[in-house]
Write a structure and sequence with these properties.
Protein name: IQ motif containing F5
Number of helices: 1
Shape: rod-shaped
Radius of gyration: 58 Å
Largest sheet: 3 strands, antiparallel
Keywords: Repeat
GO molecular function, one term: calmodulin binding
Structural class: alpha+beta
Number of strands: 3
InterPro entries: IQ_motif_EF-hand-BS (IPR000048), IQCF (IPR039887)
Helix content: over 70%
């Protein structure tokens, strides 16, 4: 029975060696798969981080563009309002000037005015006056002797 027993132990040893080798190869495969999964997870985390930064950049760019558009709209609206108010102010100012011109002309004609000139000669003063009161006009010419002591 000696030789059979050695073949049984050889078979048992070979079988145990196969089991150990299978376990070791499985461990190596599982370790390789774990490392590959970890590397894939790291790459996915990095990619998600990059996508989040890209989305934040797009959001910020869109927001800044919108803010610039809003600012431009507000600026144009203020210019248009300023232009309309200035037009209205200029029209009112023109109306005021027209009213003042007519009022001054009316006052001048109702109150009257005096226009004239004078000339001073040796011992006389010649005066020519034109007095206007509304539609009436009066012309005065007078020569006044001056009291000069010799």
């Amino acid at each position: 029975m000696g030789p059979k027993r050695s073949t049984n132990t050889n078979k048992a040893n070979a079988s145990a060696a196969v089991v150990i080798q299978a376990w070791w190869r499985g461990t190596l495969v599982r370790r390789t798969l774990l490392h590959a999964a970890l590397r894939a997870w790291v790459i996915q985390c990095w990619w998600r981080h990059k996508l989040a930064k890209l989305m934040e950049l797009r959001r910020r760019t869109t927001l800044e563009f919108f803010a610039r558009q809003e600012w431009a709209v507000v600026r144009v609206q203020s210019w248009v309002r300023m232009w309309c108010i200035r037009q209205r102010y200029c029209r009112l100012l023109n109306a005021v000037r027209i009213i003042q011109v007519y009022w001054r002309w009316h006052n001048c004609h109702t109150r009257g005015f005096i226009q004239g000139d004078y000339e001073l000669k040796e011992d006389r003063l010649n005066i020519q006056l034109e007095i206007s009161l509304g539609s009436q006009a009066c012309k005065v010419q007078q020569c006044i002797p001056l009291p000069i002591k010799e």
